[in-house]
Write a structure and sequence with these properties.
Helix content: 25-40%
Number of helices: 2
Structural class: mainly alpha
Largest sheet: 3 strands, antiparallel
Distance between the termini: 89 Å
Order of helices and strands: HHEEE
Strand content: 5-15%
């Protein structure tokens, strides 16, 4: 007598192909998660830099409103310190994508970040290459 299909022994478990697909999907999710966490870290650096520049910009505008005869090009970080919130001892700094310290250039409007410590010269640091994205710069 032949066994009916319902009484036959059926193997249970995962095949090698099913396990490979699951491992591949997990690896893809982990890779995308690491990529997203790196992008979020870069976004946080840019946001912090923008906030610092906006603070310096407000201090710059307030100083110039109180001293209308002083030309913008003669501003120094020492002149703006009393106009920054919470009376810091130094100008706020930011970190670049490669962890270098960035300083705001204060004698231009709007201020921008540079690697020069003086705060009155240096080339613009802006890895986004645009002044309209509100990251790494106040915008023009």
């Amino acid at each position: 007598m032949k066994a009916s299909p319902s009484t036959r022994f059926q193997a249970r478990g995962f095949t090698l192909i099913e396990m490979s697909i699951v491992i591949f999907v997990l690896l893809a999710l982990m890779t995308s998660g690491f990529y997203v966490s790196n992008v979020v870290g870069q976004w946080k650096l840019a946001r912090d830099a923008s906030e610092n520049l906006r603070t310096v910009y407000v201090a710059q505008r307030t100083y110039l409103a109180d001293n209308p005869t002083v030309p913008l090009t003669s501003l120094t970080p020492a002149l703006l310190l009393p106009y920054l919130p919470n009376n810091p001892a130094t100008m706020p700094t930011s970190k670049s994508l490669d962890s270098a310290t960035l300083y705001p250039r204060v004698n231009v409007s709007p201020p921008y970040l540079t690697t020069n410590t003086s705060g009155i010269d240096g080339t613009r640091y802006d890895p986004s290459k645009t002044t309209t994205d509100s990251q790494w710069d106040v915008g023009e």
